[in-house]
Task: inverse folding
């Protein structure tokens, strides 16, 4: 069964500092991997996705993520955080085939301090 | 393209009452998903429709829950005899038909249910 672990429930960073959010997945083959962001009162917005190919994936809002098969990880990074990045971030793994079930992690809440 | 819409956005009900939520997917999307998100958790899959057929249901979907998509367009999720444990955000997502790679799921804003 596919699963996702986000070990950090809550992270606080200063505005302008770099950010890395951790994600580890479990899946029997090469997975589809996603990072979503959810702001209060908003739906989930896709930041970026990995299907295959280049292991460094660029997304919207200046985010990037790196797929490391050997570590079963897909960490999200941003070089300089803005106050508007404060939100909850979810890593997810998608199954290939069938109805392409997506399994989400428990999320990491990002707080940005001035 | 106006995105996935859900109605209502908030629902407060008393324990034991029935509630119904509606989801309108992106117009050309034939796949529709329902998820439930409780506080401090990520969304959990509930059920999946392809056109009007309900093809997959999670064990989370107890007998009190029923979902329909009668004409393959909008969908409804009904919860009968609500319990306080049903309090959650109910998210709907849709994706386009296709067989190549992964068909991205687009999420609606959700319906927040509070059961008193």
Result:
């Amino acid at each position: 069964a596919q699963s996702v672990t986000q070990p950090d429930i809550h992270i606080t960073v200063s505005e302008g500092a770099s950010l890395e959010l951790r994600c580890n997945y479990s899946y029997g083959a090469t997975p589809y991997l996603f990072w979503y962001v959810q702001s209060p009162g908003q739906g989930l917005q896709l930041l970026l996705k990995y299907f295959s190919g280049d292991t460094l994936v660029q997304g919207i809002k200046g985010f990037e993520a790196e797929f490391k098969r050997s570590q079963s990880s897909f960490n999200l990074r941003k070089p300089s955080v803005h106050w508007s990045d404060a939100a909850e971030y979810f890593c997810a793994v998608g199954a290939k085939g069938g109805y392409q079930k997506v399994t989400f992690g428990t999320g990491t809440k990002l707080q940005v301090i001035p | 393209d106006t995105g996935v819409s859900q109605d209502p956005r908030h629902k407060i009900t008393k324990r034991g009452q029935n509630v119904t939520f509606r989801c309108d997917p992106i117009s050309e999307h034939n796949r529709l998903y329902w998820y439930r998100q409780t506080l401090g958790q990520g969304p959990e899959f509930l059920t999946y429709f392809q056109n009007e057929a309900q093809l997959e249901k999670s064990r989370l979907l107890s007998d009190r829950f029923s979902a329909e998509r009668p004409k393959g367009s909008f969908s409804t999720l009904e919860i009968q005899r609500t319990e306080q444990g049903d309090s959650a955000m109910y998210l709907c997502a849709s994706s386009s038909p296709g067989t190549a790679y992964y068909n991205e799921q687009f999420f609606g804003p959700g319906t927040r249910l509070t059961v008193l």
User: Anything to note?
Assistant: DSSP finds no helices and eleven strands in chain B. The radius of gyration of chain B is 14 Å. Chain B touches chain A at residues 4, 31, 33, 40-45, 48, 50, 55-56, 91, 93, 95, 101-105, 107-110 (CB under 8 Å). The mean pLDDT of chain B is 92.
